[in-house]
Specification:
386 residues, binds magnesium ion, 7 strands, binds guanosine-5'-triphosphate, Spore Coat Polysaccharide Biosynthesis Protein SpsA, Chain A, alpha/beta, 2 domains
């Protein structure tokens, strides 16, 4: 199977039949399957089963009785169950005309790309189907914003919020995608270095059925962008804070039993530096350990950088206070230096200590094997029975 076309559906019973017919027509002899991931509360699953019975291409259905993580969760579920090497995501309300499929699939299969996205903002593309003025504004604003926030990863994309795209499944790590982010393309692009191409895409007006809430979508997008951009920073800050408190507690305890203050400070520092590292390894970067350098390397670089940072910070404080005569602002200077030090340490751990080897040149990067979730094809007999 070359391509799995994943169609997330939420109450799209009026659109399913036309979608399957037009998809069959459009894809011709290409080796594709259709996979509906359905969270509907109406009769959409029954309609899918009925239409599948007479479909020329294989149609499969995952109906989620307890949908988790909405649209994003549905697409991830589709990725996990896809039989194709490539997966296309296409809306179930015919806003993405299935006639665009051949262009997308053929470009995907020409072997030069890891991801091919339909863009509304290249010549030949068209976003006329955005439901209202608010949507138009939101789309343009958020596209600008994410391009500003992720200049490197989104360099090759003019429409990172598009919902119509194809990705090579062995190039992405499904465990690293956060399904809560409902703009899955943005999620994929920001988390993985990929060779990206675009084709012009049309966003047609919704054919039938209801449009989903606007404000809620804007809110979810905002949360997704924050999560993508600052990622593990809150966790990093939390571990640092706990470490700071532990440091003081240890020093206080040691002094209490008669240890000199310098020895107490050294023991406290050594203990918290090691404690911080252990906490980072176990709670914050546990998913990145396997792809990063060896344990001793991570340890020595983490501890080495933290040690160097605090030495440089102390020196900088001395420079600020003594040479710039900030005697009455020493605490303020220390606060500013701590903030700068925090960002430097965070960046160093993200970029160096837990850098994923094999990222950068995506061509040779072996993706993780994807556990295929078996979902039976809706064969004519079976569909007729149910
Ligand atoms: N499985 C699943 N599909 C969803 C969910 N929310 C939306 N969808 C489907 O995802 C596709 C895109 O959603 P739409 O509601 O069309 O989103 P939109 O195109 O931004 O907005 P409108 O068309 O104006 O509603 C459609 O096929 C929906 O049926 C969900 O929670 N679960
Ligand atoms: Mg739609």
């Amino acid at each position: 199977m070359d391509v799995t076309i994943i169609v997330p559906t939420f109450n799209e019973s009026l659109n399913v039949e036309e979608l399957v017919r037009r998809t069959e027509q459009a894809v011709g002899e290409r080796a594709v399957e259709l996979l509906f991931v359905d969270d509907s509360t109406d009769d959409t699953p029954e309609v899918i089963r009925r239409v599948a019975a007479s479909s020329r291409i294989p149609v499969r259905l995952i109906h989620r009785e307890e949908p988790v993580d909405g649209l994003g969760g549905a697409v991830l579920e589709g990725y996990r169950a896809a039989a194709g090497r490539w997966a296309v995501v296409m809306d179930g309300d015919l806003q993405h005309p299935p006639e665009m499929l051949p262009g997308l699939i053929d470009k995907a299969l020409d072997g030069r790309w890891d991801l091919v996205a339909g863009s509304r903002f290249v010549p030949g593309g068209d976003a006329e189907g955005l439901a209202n003025g608010f949507r138009v504004l939101l789309t343009h604003f958020s596209t600008r914003l994410v391009k500003l926030l992720f200049p490197r990863r989104l360099k090759g994309s003019t429409d990172p919020m598009s919902g119509f795209f194809a990705v090579r499944l062995d190039r992405i790590d499904l465990d690293r995608l956060h399904p809560r982010g409902f703009k899955i393309l943005l999620e994929v692009l920001c988390r993985t270095p990929l060779r990206v191409a675009e084709i012009p895409a049309t966003l047609a007006p919704r054919v039938a059925g209801e449009s989903k809430g606007d404000i809620k979508q804007a809110w979810r997008l905002a949360r997704q962008i924050v999560e993508l951009r600052i990622g593990r920073m809150p966790g990093f800050a939390f571990i640092g804070l706990i470490g700071g408190i532990a440091n003081l507690a240890i020093m206080w305890g040691l002094e209490h039993v008669g240890v000199g203050y310098l020895s107490a400070a050294i023991v406290a520092a050594a203990t918290t530096i090691i404690g911080n590292f252990v906490a980072q390894e176990h709670f914050l970067y546990h998913d990145l350990r396997a792809g990063a350098r060896k344990l001793w390397w991570r340890f020595s670089h983490s501890v080495g950088f933290n040690g160097a940072e605090s030495a440089v910070r102390t020196f900088a404080l001395w420079v600020a206070v003594e040479l710039l005569s900030l005697h009455d602002r020493a605490v303020l200077a220390q606060a500013a230096l701590l903030v700068i030090g925090f960002f430097l340490r965070y960046a160093y751990h993200e970029r160096v200590v837990y850098k994923q080897l094999g990222q950068g040149g995506s061509a040779e990067r072996p993706g993780r094997p994807v556990a295929i979730r078996p979902v039976p094809v809706l064969l004519p007999d079976e569909a007729a029975e149910s």
